[in-house]
Amino acid sequence: MLSLPRVLLPFTAFLWCMLPASVFASSGYPAETLDLTSSNVGYIALLLFGIAYLFVMAEEYTHLRKSKPVLLAAGVIWVLIAAVYARHDMPHAAGIAIRHNILEYAELFFFLLVAMTYINSMEERLVFQALRAKLVSAGLSFRQLFWITGALSFVISPVADNLTTALLMCAVVMALGKGKPKFVSLACINIVVAANAGGAFSPFGDITTLMVWQKGIISFSEFFALFIPSLVNWIIPAAIMSFAIEKSKPEGDGEVVIMKRGGIIVIVLFLMTIATAVSFHNFLHLPPMTGMMMGLSYLKIFGFYLKKSHNRYAKGVTYDPEKAKDEIGDPVSYDIFKNVARAEWDTLFFFYGVILCVGGLGFMGYLGMVSHVMYENWGATPANVTVGILSAIVDNIPVMFAVLTMMPDMSHGQWLLVTLTAGVGGSLLSIGSAAGVALMGQARGIYTFGAHLKWMPVIALGYAASIVVHLVVNGSKF
Predict the structure, then answer these.
(1) What is the DSSP string of 222-245?
(2) Is the dihedral of CA 201, 392, 60, 186 positive or negative?
(3) Which of 154, 173, 292, 362 could join 405 via S-S bond, C-beta 3.0 to 4.6 A?
(4) Phi and psi of 338, rounded to 5°?
(5) Of 388, 459, 464, nearest to 238 (Cα)?
(6) pLDDT band at 65 (very low <50, low <70, confident <90, very high)
(7) Coil, helix or strand at residue 262
(8) Cα 273 to Cα 26: distance, rounded to the nearest angstrom
């Protein structure tokens, strides 16, 4: 079985060796393309993507991992494209185009891999568990806990990501909400809305904001113009739902969690890594992924220190076995590649499938057709509002990647608007975001599609209000 480093090395080498110079010098697509929107091949590709995404949406019921159908659809779509272009004596056109999509994915892949490794390292050092234990033992009322978990979701998701943040906060409400299904359900809805809203005003908070930032459309500091609209998006439904939460206090379980040695330093190194990625992008005009990969070296070097000092530190606390158990944990020393291996590989492969599927449909001409209808016939504002609604039904990742592939001519205010709507629109339905889907599994039978749907009008009110606030507050950017 190949180890992870041996897998990654040929993958990166393949990308750099195989990509022709023309890909870097241009948009990545060949100069001459065929319009396949009215062909049987185009219709088959649309059907394949539609069927694949139906399986993705039904993952909760079929238990078929979401990466599998989109990987298959991506492969078949590009086989169809290559076959058509070969028949038209353009055998290399499909290869040039798909390499452009692979380059898009490679930047996203390595960025997310580093972020996931840091998050897994913080989990392994019990950073999140320690926070959860403190909240559980704080003696808060259900209503206070509702607001605090929502506020923490809003604050943490811009730095971590909305999925990890939602899972952490859900663990808190599940620990305190035993026997209180109504509280758990409402708290989970609040967490999903808050996590998605918090992720909308930061390049690191959601995949969609990350894609927009990496594309160079919006600078790092410009994302914070969405802070007030994002806050409104969460505050309005939270304020209304809070009246349905009782004021009594839950009973704590008395659990005490001590953070493992080096937990605080891992947090600091993660913040340094984010600063490195931002600096690489803003000042050196390098892809943020390069800064994140450099930041991974910080964690690897610190992991080397933890490994080398493990036995010496263990001997220093042998007089207190409980302290040794709490602060050191496993008798085996820290291993960073265990944290790399625990990355969300299904999610990473899902992104690959989505990017290649949407890229293939775009290469056939479908995205240009959609762009003409939405952004030229409807206008930018109605189109961008619609993008948010579509994000709740399909998923914000393929929708945003489609918008970025279409690249409509819009003002900065409109690009901020579509970033906002794609980020928070997924909160309208429980299946509209990764956070919602994950919490339906974590709080199975309590937080359900129907429970979330019951409060959709309130969430939609927050969605509409956030758009209005953005149009007013950031009017100068339009």
Answers:
(1) GGGGGHHHHHHHHHHHHHHHHTTS
(2) positive
(3) 362
(4) -65, -35
(5) 459
(6) confident
(7) coil
(8) 30
Cα gap 1→172, rounded to integer Å:
38
Tokens of 323: 């302290």
Q: Which of 181, 189, 153, 186 is nearest to 168 (CA)?
A: 153
Structure tokens at 233: 């998006």
Which residue is it, tokens 């999610």?
A: 347
Distance of CA 298 to the CA centre of its chain: 23
- 443, 448, 388, 453: which is closest to 414 by C-alpha? 388
pLDDT in tens, 198-217: 989 988 777 788 888 888 88
In angstroms, the CA 236 to CA 233 distance is 6
Sign of CA dihedral 278, 463, 191, 206: negative
Tell me how far apart the 2 most distant CA atoms of the chain are, in Å: 77
Distance CA(132)–CA(134), nearest Å, equals: 5
CA 375 and chain centroid, separation = 26
User: In the structure encoding, which two tokens stand for residue 271, read together?
Assistant: 């913040």
**Identity of the amino acid at 271:** L
Mean pLDDT computed over every residue of the chain:
82
Residue 416 has pLDDT above 90, yes or no: yes
- In angstroms, the CA 327 to CA 360 distance is 50
Amino acid (one-letter) located at 389: I
Give the DSSP letter of residue 36.
Answer: -
Supply 128's token pair: 């999140």
| Res 290: pLDDT | 92
Q: Amino acid identity, residue 86?
A: A
pTM: 0.73
Q: At which residue do the structure tokens 């964690």 appear?
A: 299
Residue type, 325: K
Instruction: Indicate the domain borders of the chain.
Output: 110-207+235-341
3-state SS, one letter per residue, for 354-417: HHHHHHHHHHHCHHHHHHHHHHHHHCHHHHHHHHHHHHHHCCHHHHHHHHHHHCCCCCHHHHHH
Residue 18 in this model has a pLDDT that exceeds 70: no
Q: Is 247 helix (H, G, I), strand (E, B) or coil?
A: coil
For 139-193, what is each residue's pLDDT tens digit? 788 899 899 999 999 998 887 667 768 877 887 788 777 778 899 999 999 999 9
* Alpha helices, DSSP H, located in 88-205: 93-124, 127-136, 142-156, 162-176, 181-199
Please state, in angstroms and rounded to a whole number, the distance separating the CA atoms of residues 370 and 309. 58
319 C-beta neighbours (distance < 10 Å), count = 8
Q: Quick one: pLDDT band at residue 415, thresholds 50, 70, 90?
A: very high
The CB-side HSE value for 317 (13 A sphere, CA atoms) comes to 15
